[in-house]
Write a structure and sequence with these properties.
By secondary structure, the chain is mostly beta strands. It has no helices and twelve strands. It is elongated and about 55 Å long. It binds zinc ion.
Length: 109
């Protein structure tokens, strides 16, 4: 299984498709699908009919939500150099830390 180097709360930049260059915070990580939900990226709109769900009534209207994007379509933005960068892993004391391959900043405390 591929270990994702991107975590919830990270900032990523879209590197392909029509939203190329858009940055957003990672809201959710779906490791099994190798996908991420990123704030403001891949926003879809869904028309909602009036419905009953779990005892509460949901009002009809248009709801927008972020659809997951594949990890290969985004790159992690380094907090230090503020660029979309490749990330390396550095192992020490049994922990692996992510390191920016551009400025060599360790991203995880
Ligand atoms: Zn960096």
């Amino acid at each position: 299984m591929v270990k994702l180097k991107i975590k919830k709360g990270d900032t990523v930049e879209v590197i392909s498709g029509r939203e190329k260059g858009v940055r957003g915070e990672v809201l959710r990580v779906l490791p099994k699908d190798e996908r991420l939900v990123v704030q403001g990226v891949n926003v879809r709109k869904k028309h909602q009919r009036k419905m009953q769900a779990g005892g509460r009534t949901m009002n009809p209207g248009v709801i927008s939500f972020e659809a997951p994007v594949h990890v290969s379509n985004v790159m992690l933005v380094c907090p230090k150099c503020s660029e979309p960068v490749r990330v390396g892993l550095e192992r020490s004391e049994g922990k692996s830390r992510r390191v920016c391959k551009n400025c060599e900043t360790v991203m995880d405390a």
